[in-house]
Hints:
heterodimer; A: alpha+beta; Alpha-Beta Plaits; 6 strands; elongated; B: alpha+beta; Arc Repressor Mutant, subunit A; 5-stranded antiparallel sheet; 6 helices
Amino acid sequence: MKHRADLPILDSANRRIINMLQGGFPVSESPYQETATRIGISEDELLWRLEVMKTDQVYSRFGPLYNAEALGGAVTLAAMKVPDDDFERVTELVNAHDEVSHNYRRSPTPLNMWFVVSTEDKNGINSVLSTIEQETGLKVYNMPKQKEYFLKLKLFV
Amino acid sequence: MNSNIAPSTVTKEDRKLLAVIQSGLPLVSHPYAEVGKRIGMSEDEVIERTLQLQQKGIIRRMGIIVHHRPLGYNANAMVVWNLPAKLVDSFGEQVSALEFVTLCYQRKPDEEMWPYNLYTMIHGKDRDSVMEKVDSLLALSPIKNIDHKVLFSSRRFKQHGARYFADNSKNGGPAPASLQSKPEPCR
């Protein structure tokens, strides 16, 4: 498939594709054809645009979003208060854990490192967090989810 | 929301399917037939199982998972709120319905260190536009001068989708290193 550098990343067809496909994708024999028809382009063009946007890293993945808890897994948000001059070392230690999927430095707050931990079973979270405490010598604050409100996970473009 | 589903409702065959599609659907005319070929299932069975897994809430949705920055969303803030127990639910329901609130959770506060019990994620083109959105949330607050914090991300260190299954159908392995730990400045 040829990559056309002259195509703007977010022309109107791509915007329609992104907005529509964040809301769902048909589970049927010809889902790309169905989607393309609704957008008003051909199936080939849709597949080509999806390839290009993947290459350009407009999106990270095209597929299912799982509910970890429903699969028996667990997810939590944790935070640490990391001294500025120790940030690189702690970041390396935290990110070395495969269970850490997102890690953001945030300010302004005493808690300046925030990361998401996902494990395959419910007991895994505590063991990951206490390992991180031992490795870093810093306290990890666990902020487990108590309730989830309507999840859109969608950005309009 | 769907958190109370027993894991036992996911069969071994379901897991095989979930493992092979976790990294993405193939970009071909009949993607579910292609998925089926990889794990020895018919197209019909793949479609049927996928629909059931969606219905059970195990697959939240099929679709595209975007990177924020190429779409012009350069700023994100986690806004945390310290609400009285009685009010947290109604405020959570109200703000989660707004288009620009992408995630909304009630979380257990830390008694000594962190009293905040409602977490909202807000994305915007830049910090100013995020702050405007925060102002509109403040206007909805049931309490004047509510205790809240706007935590902008100054740097992103790691972002990859959580992986739940070892994918044995190919030499899958973890996501490419370039997506795992690329430190990236965030405004």
